[in-house]
Amino acid sequence: MATGTVITGVPPTPPYEPPRTSAVPFPPPPRMPSGPRRRSLFASAAGAVLLVGCSSAPDTDGTAGSPSAADRARARAARDSAGLVEHYDAVIAAHPGLAERLRPLRAEVVRHVAAFGGTASGTATPSASASPSVSVSPSAVPTDAKVALTELATAERTLADRRTEALLDLPGELARLLASVAAAGAAHVYLLTEGEA
């Protein structure tokens, strides 16, 4: 062969590829737990608290002598939240060991009462400052702390569900407020029942 001769018919060598050691290219991704993560629930609860601060301009849909449907819904939401505050107070009074766990949730419910234009006690003692729709006395709280938490979670869930159903009949600003408080209630249910499963 002469120098500088090109041999035709020989394919060029492909770029270098490392040899495969397995037929499976990568291990499967780790399985993620189902359901919401605690961090996302805290974030949504915090977002709900921020939304509670939205302005609540009174609606003028009612006639001069009677309150509008929105005013009635707002008053009922304030009463329901005040009743929930009393439920928290009763559980804390009956089970002081749960106070550290329940105080932050109770404080959020107190803010919900204020957002709806009601008033509630600022401390964890029963209060009659608002007329709640359901009152719970410490003697009505179950003696088993786990059952008391389950009942409190059920009360939160029932109220959150009722508020979610009422959204369609309310004007925009009040509907958004009610939706954010219902979302916070759903987060409370999760936090109250955490560890049961």
From TrEMBL:
Taxonomy, superkingdom: Bacteria
Ranges where the record places region Disordered: 1-37, 120-139
Protein name (Swiss-Prot/TrEMBL): Lipoprotein
Residue spans of biased composition, Low complexity class: 1-10
